[in-house]
Amino acid sequence: MGLKIIYSRFALRDLKEAYDFISKDSVRYAKQEKRLIKEAIKKLKINPLLGKTFEKFNEENTRELIFKNYRIVYDIYENEFIEILTIHHHARLITNNPAFKDEE
Predict the structure, then answer these.
(1) Which terminus of the chain has fewer Cβ atoms in its 10 Å neighbourhood, N or C?
(2) Splitting the chain (104 residues) into consecutive groups of 10 residues, what average pLDDT does each group show?
(3) In what helix (H) or strand (E) does residue 36 lie, and over which residues does it extend?
């Protein structure tokens, strides 16, 4: 079965924004893209080390999975769950991603 996967509020927002953007041209393609992203993420359940170490944090448990035009950044919580931090489209600057801003 593997580890449980949870989505941060940023990752959920990212999925919605990707869907909304693509659906302007094709709802069918938007649904397909969302499904494919989620299928790629599901692979992490069985193999959480599938992605490489995320260079912004340089910590073994923060990793990124490249899927198509997306950088799926996630944290691994040993033997508990995987948290998807963001599903970042490569056309945007990762430094502007709110998932990596310090919250006060």
Answers:
(1) C
(2) 91 96 96 97 94 81 94 92 93 72 52
(3) helix 27-46
SS (H, E, C) 36-93: HHHHHHHHHHHCHHHCEECCCCCCCCEEEEEECCEEEEEEEECCCEEEEEEEEECCCC
Identity of residue 84: I
| Domains of the chain, each with CATH number or no CATH | 4-90 (3.30.2310.20)
Token code pair at residue 94: 């990762």
CA distances (Å), origin 31, targets 17, 36, 57, 94, 101: 12, 9, 32, 24, 29
> What is the model's pTM?
0.87
